[in-house]
């Protein structure tokens, strides 16, 4: 936040309760209603969701509440699910390569089994930001084609064209 010139107090964090399927949808409406009760000058301008499924649900709820995305609130997700590019508006998301993450996890497990004293450490794998209309729709002159994305990041060569990168954690 500081790098963007924003004071930390401008960040509002809300957790959605986890459901048996781990998706947190039931509380999302409550969270959005709570945020919209804030005075207009204190309302968030963006919603950053931990995964695309939740972000896509947020798009639907905001539409049902009569709000414009990204005009009233921008929305982002994480995972770059195949249908994220076809939502209305298309969802800005961070792509990761699940296969590469799985392969690296197996490699680390194998190394740990053969050397129990070796630390696993933390490893960051590349990701790609796919900018779409859920955040860029209000930018003058930007009109992405349906399903298209302006991509930032460096996905692995084998993932180019698949729209994915990789990230540790998530």
Task: Give the SSE layout.
Elements: H1 25-36, E1 46-48, H2 52-64, E2 74-79, E3 92-95, H3 98-114, E4 128-131, H4 133-136, E5 150-153
Structure explained in plain terms:
- The structure is a single chain.
- Strands 1-2-3-4-5 form a 5-stranded mixed sheet.
- The relative contact order is 0.14.
- The radius of gyration is 18 Å and the shape is elongated.
- It is built from 4 helices and 5 strands.
- By secondary structure, it is α/β, with parallel strands linked by helices.
- Helix 2 (52-64) links the parallel strand 1 (46-48) and strand 2.
- It has a single domain, classed as 3-Layer(aba) Sandwich (Rossmann fold), CATH 3.40.50.
- Residues 144-170 have low confidence and may be disordered.
Task: Give a quick summary of the entry.
The chain is an alpha/beta fold.
Estimated structural class: alpha/beta
As a whole number of angstroms, the C-alpha radius of gyration is 18 Å
CATH class: Alpha Beta
Helix count from the secondary structure assignment: 4
Contiguous low-pLDDT stretches (5 residues minimum) are: 144-170
Mean pLDDT equals 75
Report the strand count: 5
* N- to C-terminal distance: 20 Å
User: Helix fraction?
Assistant: 25-40%
Question: Which descriptors apply to this entry?
Answer:
170 residues, alpha/beta, Rossmann fold, 5-stranded mixed sheet, 4 helices, 27% helix, elongated
């Amino acid at each position: 936040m500081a790098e963007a010139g924003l004071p930390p107090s401008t960040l509002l964090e809300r957790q959605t309760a986890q459901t048996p399927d781990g998706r947190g949808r039931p509380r999302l409406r409550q969270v959005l209603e709570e945020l919209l009760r804030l005075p207009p000058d204190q309302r968030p301008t963006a919603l950053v969701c931990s995964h695309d499924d939740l972000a896509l649900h947020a798009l639907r709820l905001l539409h049902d509440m009569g709000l414009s995305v990204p005009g009233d609130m921008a929305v982002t997700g994480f995972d770059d699910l195949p249908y994220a590019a076809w939502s209305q508006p298309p969802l800005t998301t961070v792509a990761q390569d699940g296969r590469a993450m799985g392969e690296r996890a197996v490699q680390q497990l194998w190394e740990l089994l053969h050397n129990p004293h070796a630390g696993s450490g933390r490893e960051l794998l590349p990701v790609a930001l796919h900018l779409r209309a859920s955040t860029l729709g209000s930018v003058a002159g930007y009109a992405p084609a349906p399903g298209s994305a302006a991509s930032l990041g460096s996905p692995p060569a084998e993932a180019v064209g698949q729209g994915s990168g990789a990230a540790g954690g998530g």
